[in-house]
From TrEMBL:
The active site is at E243. It comes from the Bacteria. This is Aldehyde dehydrogenase family protein. Belongs to the aldehyde dehydrogenase family. GO terms for molecular function: oxidoreductase activity, acting on the aldehyde or oxo group of donors, NAD or NADP as acceptor. The keyword Oxidoreductase applies.
């Protein structure tokens, strides 16, 4: 079987009848995405529901074996998938970007197939025997974002399939080709109709949240859209796992070494050019080392190349779409007008091709400035001076989101004490944003609810049933 980029695009391109998808780095046409409708969704749910009955009757081992074969298929197609992802999403091939994302898809499939989830006796005392087990939900709707389109599709679909569900995927309108291509590769291994993709706009997303044939929704995206899904899914009482907006805080204590942490801080904030839900988006630094941290971070940032993703030397790319460029640009300009100090960046070439926004560091900024309290989702990091850990904790917890956070310190025990006081689903020590398929992940407050990854993630994609007797 040929595994070239041309073969992959041909398999998913809808031709001139579809919607043109542009490369955010060059404005060139990447391909054409099908424009499907709520009727197409209804047909897909019907086929998935029929296929699910046979899929759900297979053993866990049989389903896991197919996930392992799917991982092999992803690796076979790895380079074409990475090239398509780079062209459509904008992220470079190298660094923690396109090749990394495709590799993570294969790794996640394998990890998901490796977890043990057996029936659990909860009482067995000679008189009463009760066993907890998990049954398939049926059809799961997976609504994904444009920032990590392939990897988050795997996060949603792999555990759903492992638990015996069929899945209907709705990719972002900005990155449909990447997800169509990934699912094309997966479907070369999976039974027919178990995994469906419906590429369309808001009409399709809205129909997923109300469709009576869908038993659960996995959604990664904005808090505003998550709230709409909660409301519209209530009529059919769907199960929900929602990973919503972040605006993650990082806290640097006065005993940290600025030079030693600069690289970790940078990638915590600027992975995927800042377009990551759990990226570090506001940094609180103790006054005693504030200037040194600013200098060390700026020194490191200056050496990180940004440009067209297919050029091998680049590790930062453009913003994925014009709307996100305008959000970042507006927040940075407002911060500059307020008197905040620009350490680096903040002067995009608005006439150039693509949506490139330069790596930007903003110091001496008011803690209530919109760049701090609103999620920028791009390559612009505000650095806030604080008196001590108490002020940092208070400011970190002041917002209504809590996906992730981090604490940076030379004293790991002290860092853990601070971490325990932060209102976030995950708190990293001396790093930020790393995820692991074995470790549960989810948010608090308006960053959503439900856990993904690991055995806890599997449980969220099954219906618990107690057999008592």
């Amino acid at each position: 079987m040929a595994t070239t980029y041309a073969d992959l695009v041909q398999a998913v391109d809808a031709g001139e009848a579809g919607r043109a998808i542009l490369d955010p780095a060059t404005d060139e046409v990447v391909g054409h995405a099908p424009e499907q409708t709520a009727q197409d969704l209804d047909d897909a749910v019907g086929r998935a529901g029929t296929a699910q009955r046979g899929w759900g009757s297979r053993t866990q081992r049989e389903r896991c074996d197919l996930l392992l074969k799917a991982a092999d298929a992803v690796e076979e197609w790895a380079e074409p998938l990475a090239e398509l992802l780079s062209r459509e999403q904008g992220k470079p091939l190298n660094g923690p970007n396109a090749r990394f994302e495709v590799g993570a898809c294969a790794s996640w499939l394998r990890a998901t197939a490796s977890f043990e989830l057996e029936d659990t006796p909860v009482v067995d005392d000679g008189q009463t025997r009760a066993v907890l087990t998990y049954r398939p939900i049926g059809v799961v709707g997976a609504i994904g974002p444009w920032n990590w389109p392939m990897m988050i599709t795997i996060w949603q679909t792999a555990p759903a399939l492992r638990m015996g569900n069929a899945v209907v995927v709705k990719p972002s309108e900005h990155t449909p080709l990447s997800v169509l291509a990934l699912c094309h590769v997966l479907n070369s291994v999976l039974p027919e109709d178990v995994l469906q993709v419906v590429s369309g706009g808001r009409e399709v997303g809205a129909a997923i949240s109300t469709h009576p044939g869908i038993g659960k929704i996995m959604f990664t995206g904005s808090t505003a859209t998550g709230k709409k899904i909660i409301e519209s899914s209530a009529e059919t009482v769907k199960r929900l796992t929602l990973e919503l907006g972040g605006n993650d805080a990082g806290i640097v204590l006065e005993d940290a070494d600025p030079a030693a942490i600069a690289e970790g801080l940078f990638w915590g904030a600027f992975i995927n050019t800042g377009q990551t839900c759990a990226a570090l988006k506001r940094l609180y630094v103790a006054d005693a080392i504030y200037d040194d941290v600013c200098a060390a971070l700026a020194d490191f940032a200056r050496g990180v190349p940004m440009g067209v993703g297919l050029e091998e030397q680049n590790v930062l790319g453009p913003l994925q779409n014009a709307a996100q460029f305008e959000i970042v640009d507006g927040l940075v300009e407002e911060a500059r007008r307020s008197g905040a100090r620009v350490l680096l960046g903040a002067d995009p070439d608005r006439d150039a091709a693509g949506h490139f926004y330069p790596t930007t560091l903003i110091a001496d900024i008011d803690p209530e400035n919109p760049l701090v309290v609103e999620e920028q989702f791009g390559p612009a990091l505000p650095i806030v001076r604080v008196a001590d850990a108490e002020e940092a904790i208070a400011r970190a917890n002041a917002l209504d989101v809590g996906l992730g956070a981090s604490v940076w310190s030379g004293d790991r025990e002290r860092a853990r004490e601070v971490a325990a006081r932060l209102q976030a689903g995950t708190v990293w020590i001396n790093s930020h944003g790393g995820v692991d398929p074995r470790i549960p992940f989810g948010g608090v407050k308006q960053s959503g609810y439900g856990l993904e990854f690991g055995v806890e993630g599997l449980k969220g994609l099954g219906v618990p049933q107690v057999i008592n007797g």
